[in-house]
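User: For documentation purposes, I need each entry recorded in a consistent format: the amino acid sequence on its own, followed directly by the corresponding structure tokens. There are two entries in this batch. Please keep commentary to a minimum and don't merge the entries.

Assistant: Recorded as requested. Entry 1:
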Amino acid sequence: MGWWLLVLAIALYLFWRWTSLKSASIPHTLGLPLLGNALSWRMDPVDFLSSLKKRFGGVFMINLAGHRMIIISDPKALEDFHKADEETLSSIEATTDVGFQIVLGRDNVLHGSAIHRQILKDQMIQNKNEFVVDFDVVLGKALRIETQFHEGSVDFIPFVRKVILRATVDYYISHEISAKFPSFLDEFTTFEDELEEGIAKAAVVPRFLQRVILAPVEKKRFNLKIKVAQVVKELYLKKATTGYLRDLISTSKLNFQVEDDFGTIAEYCLGLLFAAAKNPSILCAQTFLFLLENSAQLDRAQRELEEVSAKFREGQVQVEEMKFVDTCIKETLRLTAQPSKFHRGTL
């Protein structure tokens, strides 16, 4: 009897969520009871959104199994959206709603982004040329290591992704991680892919099913967290933390009197890797593949990189000097543009 009451209560709640859309002031589509527009979204999201834009205009709301999402394509509305502060439209609340607190950890969702943003603003942006020189050295080392593992042809995009992930781990945290745990990079890549797939699924199911869907990803994150925490603890006790990891520990203001503090830093590290490695690597690979289609442009980009690289060793590099490469990257972004997705919720 108890189970039937629980099922009935959940069904009534979801039906209320569906019917409450009728009073929304934003143009919207109700969809099916309980599921909302989830089936249409999963079948063909582009066609689904295009048809709603023709019907409602540049701002409208959809319902994905209880998740209300506002789609914005109107330029003025997008400008107002981007200018809204956290008290008006909360990224933290909405990010939590779609399951990121499960797969990346609560500390990451509540505090991680703000801490990384502060370090980047206070340290790295002010010293961007030094960063380019230092990261170039780490990236070259990662490239040599990964090249040893491949003979003949390679699948280029995964290869570049692995190189940049290795460099990112070594630069921002420590090379001790991949040295101590040789499988860490492959495990993190799997975790990252399953995280994105899991969030996509969790976004179109009722919230009470999110933890069931995301439990395998959460377990992978926990296993990675243990490994990173072990390395962080060893480096901290030896007073051997350097660079970004040292700044991360300092900015977090933890006292490290309890074991969980090392786990918190490890969680912040995983959040940083998730944000910093995959998208830049895909962009690099796509830019190179576009350049391969035009030998003259490829030669020009290579000459510019060689000229700038010569200055790396002399410490005279200026990021602004890579004008043609910068143009190639921006053109790649234009050709491969995807719609922006921001998790914001009203408070």
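Entry 2:
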Amino acid sequence: MACLKLPAAAALLLLCLFASSASAEDKPAAPAAAAAPKTSKIIESAGETQLPNGVGDVALDGACKADAAAFCKGITPGEGRVAMCLTRRIKQAQQGNMAGRMVRPKCEEQVSAYKVERSKHINKDPALARACKDDAANFCKSVSDSSTPGSVLICLREKQRKLTTQCKGEILRTQAEIAEDWRLDPQLYSACSASAAKLCQEAEPGTEVDCLLASSKSLDWSCLGHVVRVEKEAAGDIRLNMKLFRACVNDQKKFCKGIEPGHMRVQECLEDAMDKAGFSGGCKAALEEVIQMRVADFRLDTGLLDACEDDLQAICSTSADKMEKSSEEKDRAMACLQQFKEELHSDACKDKVQRKMQRMSRDIRFDDVLANACQADRKSYCPEVQPGSARVIRCLQDHRSSLSQTCAAALFDHEVKMAEDI
């Protein structure tokens, strides 16, 4: 060690002489070089990426160190295993299903931060990437998360009906995570975070997307497109709609026990039971809100669109893509399905159309043509009449002679369609 010549100060001189005479063996060993962060390129077309925190899991040298040691003993860090363990503990606490020590808030934040980072690139989530590797090669080879974060997963969700069973399972897991924390859809959050800050400050966690959809007229096109995409992806499974799931959890147990979620099965079961004794008002209101959203935007009625895809082409000479480009085409296609419901080839399509018409017959809110045509007349003649059980429709019928020409014509068309359905 070289020593600078300093003014003669005994303490500094002694320190310099001591340091110079120290042998190499007396010097502390240099710390071992940190292991290089692990990278992942399971899906090659998605691009190579570093695993979160170098190992692909929540960091164990920070806020979660003590909690991981307490709750996740024996779990080897990596592939999100520790994060999954801590998430289970957090959920148990939220549901009131555990006693004793809880995961600390700072650790909860760290788990969330890990998931946000993981969501940006499919290869940061090895379990998901392995399960969907072949599907990505078949359907999403031209898509890269390196250029557009989260794009491979969006591509896979668009092809969900064609995916392998193992990939579908992992996709559902990511959708359930997004339902609880919308930040885990990078493109949705990027496009809509500013709008959510303005419009949805009071929204409960997990209901931000529903809030944005309810405020759709105030959204820019980019945000609205992603909101509709996410709602459409989640529409068939009640577990992916946190607001509806929370409102109807007890009704589902009571009226739909044993019904497997997915493909609108639970929602349709609840719809069939909503007028039965003991059905909660909270679930009924949430369910009617969802139905209204499907009526307002046909793209969210994924059950009908999937079931009627072939009949729309064969019977009505149209498609969902054409309907999306023109409101007139959408109205014509929906009228066609109702008019020719007995000629539809698919029994599943017939069932969906029949359900739609039953909704229309009992609630004006579920017949968008009639509701739009009679909006002013309803305010004039039926302002105090509550929707449901065809009350508003009967009120309009009672005032038929006073209705505007537009409303009277729409009411007549509605009655003709309902009479044909008897």
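Summary note for entry 2:
The radius of gyration is 29 Å.
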